Amino acid sequence: MLQNRCLLPAFAAIVVASAGAEHAAAQLYPSHPITLAMPFAAGGPGDTLARILADGMRRSLGQPVIVENVTGASGSIGAGRVARAQNDGYSLILGNWTTHVVNAVTYPLPYDVVRDFEPVSLVASQPVIIISGRTLPAANLSELIAWLKANPKASAGNAGIGTASHLAALFFRKETGTQFQLVPYRGGAPATQDLLSGQIDLMFDLAANALPQARAGSIRTYAVMAADRIGAAPDIPTVDEAGLPGLYLSLWNGVWAPKDTPKPIIERLDAAIRESLSDPEIRRHLIEIGHEIPPADQQTPDALRAYQKTEIEKWWPIIAAAGIRGE
């Protein structure tokens, strides 16, 4: 007992010293450039978001935030790199619903999408929009469902196995009792090209991809797969308004750091992201290209952790039941 009592002051001193060192490190942070991994190709909606966010963070943090595209295996290559990185706040990832929910079911990952990361901030989301070619004879979502039931050989393109556009089509097909064919492509661009040329009938596409075509009058839009209309296209009804309540799917993005990154550094990064997302010019740009920005009280580490948990509970059973495996 005496020996244990003697150890207590030493243990307390270690805890205090550790906390002091952590606080000191946070005060000096950041002292050099930060790398923000973007696990998808340059030029896509996620990459655009990453570069807009990185510029805003740079102004807040006083250090460059370098976007590095680390692609492959639906984003799991980039996520794996950050999971194995030093937990010093200089290696981050702008991950999303695919990297931090879907891939855990569709790929045999060498890391855990929850335990191997520290959530920093929920950044933005892109709801999926249900669209078709201009010649499809359905003026609204109810008519589209009726047409699909009468035409079971109809086809829906998607950006690849396990993508948001693929899972949205599966979800829609299950909930509506329709049996249209699913056609995977290597990315959204070739699928869109075939939609415009009439090779496929419909798509479930991200807002950033669909809206330019909608504004050009090249496609029909039926509904946004979200509870609210989107700022960039307030004329498109939600699925609730169109007759399919609760059929939601959004490709949301968040920033994560490696596990055990010190809390003061996480708080510093979250503050920089929140400051960036409050900038009127950044908000205008993101909304214009189809992103929705969450309220400030949802841009926190705890909010991102809770939202990821909710999405895992919803989507893991759906993905497992569909037997989807990564390419």
Question: How would you describe this structure to a colleague?
Answer:
By secondary structure, this protein is of the alpha/beta class. It has two domains: 7-126 and 251-322, Bordetella uptake gene, domain 1 (D-Maltodextrin-Binding Protein, domain 2, 3-Layer(aba) Sandwich); 127-242, 3-Layer(aba) Sandwich (D-Maltodextrin-Binding Protein, domain 2), CATH 3.40.190. The protein is built from twelve helices and nine strands. The protein has helices at residues 2-28, 45-61, 76-83, 97-106, 141-150, 164-176, 188-197, 207-215, 239-242, 263-277, 280-288, 301-322, and strands spanning 34-38, 65-69, 91-96, 117-133, 155-158, 181-184, 202-206, 219-224, 250-258. Strands 1, 2, 3, 4, 5, 6, 7, 8 and 9 form a nine-stranded mixed beta sheet that branches. The protein is globular.
